[in-house]
Amino acid sequence: xxxxxxxxxxxxxxxxxxxxxxxxxxxxxxxxxxxxxxxxxxxxxxxxxxxxxxxxxxxxxxxxxxxxxxxxxxxxxxxxxxxxxxxxxxxxxxxxxxxxxxxxxxxxxxxxxxxxxxxxxxxxxxxxxxxxxxxxxxxxxxxxxxxxxxxxxxxxxxxxxxxxxxxxxxxxxxxxxxxxxxxxxxxxxxxxxxxxxxxxxxxxxxxxxxxxxxxxxxx
Length: 219
Prior knowledge:
By secondary structure, this protein is mainly α. It contains 7 helices and 4 strands.
């Protein structure tokens, strides 16, 4: 049974991905119409779609862990017993947890100054917080500031007006996506420990696609 927190994370993740996809389609379509029909250009369209695509990719990493969509090589684990396969999977999950933790630390340390927050100290593990100069005044190149986000000027820019949206908004996906990824690997590790699954590779979409293509060729 899924926890209430897990359901909230699932809903947030799925809705956010859907919103990003829809926004990318609308912005790209509008820019194509502007170019072809009016010989014009939406100046902020390219940068917007680039940032949205980055959000989509990074959020898709954690979502793929949830759905078992990541590719993996199971040639070796298929040769061993179920118990050995589970032990190997637990080792792999532990390595994934450690690596994701490093990614989360690094992403926070990169993003924090743009939000006038403190990055962590320590090369591998957080040992404290560093006192650095805030960079909340950094803006994107082309994406104009919108009225609903004007409250950020008082929070991060000493009340001065932004002409473009601050970089802290698009860069925010870094710690968010890595936190989600860590959460997903924790979920998978718990399932492995409980014996609910015996491998990190739970989908065989590539094999199914090959078999489907072969069946169509025979027909």
